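Issue 218. Parser rejects a valid record. Input:
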Amino acid sequence: MFILLTLMFSFLQGSINNVPNSEAEAPEVTDWPEGSSAYDYLVTMTQFGYRKIDTTANENSRNWIAAQLESYGYQVERQSFTTDECANCQNIVVTINGTLDDEWIVVGAHHDAICYSPPPLIGFTYPTCTSSGAYDDATGSGALLELARTFSQWNITPEHTWKLAWWDYEEWQGSASSEGGGKGSLHFVEQQIPENIDVTYLNLDMFALNWPVETPTAMQLAGCDEDYWTLYMFTSPVDDWSYYEERGLEVTEQMEANAVVLQSQLKEINHNLSHPTEWVSVVDDTKGNSDHYNFIMNGHSATWLRGQHQYIIEEGDTCEQTPKHAQSDSVTTLNTMAGGRTNVESGLQTGLDVIATMALWDRNITADSSDEVVIAQASQGVNLAIAIIAILIVTTIFCMVNYRQGKEVLPDNEI
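Output the parser choked on:
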């Protein structure tokens, strides 16, 4: 009996120990990006002055970005390029190697700024027009620096190879320019991505004025019927590719499939973070007027995280009051529109959480075996039940045998 019980308990113990422990395998992070730190970075970006291409202010800002990255332990890559309008342009790029070197996730923001006349006379530059580029795009550049700092603290190898990039020359240089904008990301897409590399691009350009930041009361009284500014995720289209097709893109089945996957992943992340879908919205991109455009036009899937309200002017209401490309694009204006620094930090946090969650999931992908864990736990339960039943059966038999033996040997008056 003792031997049988010992074997049964050994079997039971072995069954428990052999169950995969996904929690033990899952990566643990001790750091998470903070909106307050991203805010500090964006403030520093604005202090360099007017970061127009080919200016000392722009060069100083990118040197500062590179120095920050080096202080986090990154090896910084400076990708210099020239165009008809820019003699000294440079992207700043760092790489986090993954187990897959032919599949990249690139997160980007632009470090240059521009100032020209506001609508309806868009694109007219004038000598006294300068901008500190707080919203466009110190918000993106500052947030990306905070993500870089956070990722440097994660001692976890991602599945994909991640690249963090600060683009030069995103801004169109105005109506007198001989070329369009987006030159930094175009240089990367055309010159820095080898053949047969699959890229997913995440663009950070003008956010912080987004959920959970409420639209100002004055704006609502003026006709804006939105309670919060929306964080849009303008993503490779699932339904409407017409904008890109009209510009020469031949949409393949693979592009369509990748778009479905990216939109689904973004929606899953937002659901996981409890972001309300009416205020954090994943939609088809039908305009393409930021750096993500170059990635989509070259066959890669991409999304653009953009706060406030995009294209609202075309829709005829008063919700869109962006300071982009204007002399008023300052930290003071950003704070005023958001209702204070704390709200700006909260808006930044929403976007930071999305990107960081995607990064964490990519690092957790080999340990993400929730279905297997459920099966393993069910198997463990079955094994436990079998062992207990077996023990009860053997114990019952043992007792019955003892009882019968006792009945045979004891006197009748003691039964």
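Fixed in the parser; the record now loads. The chain is about 45% helix and 15% strand.
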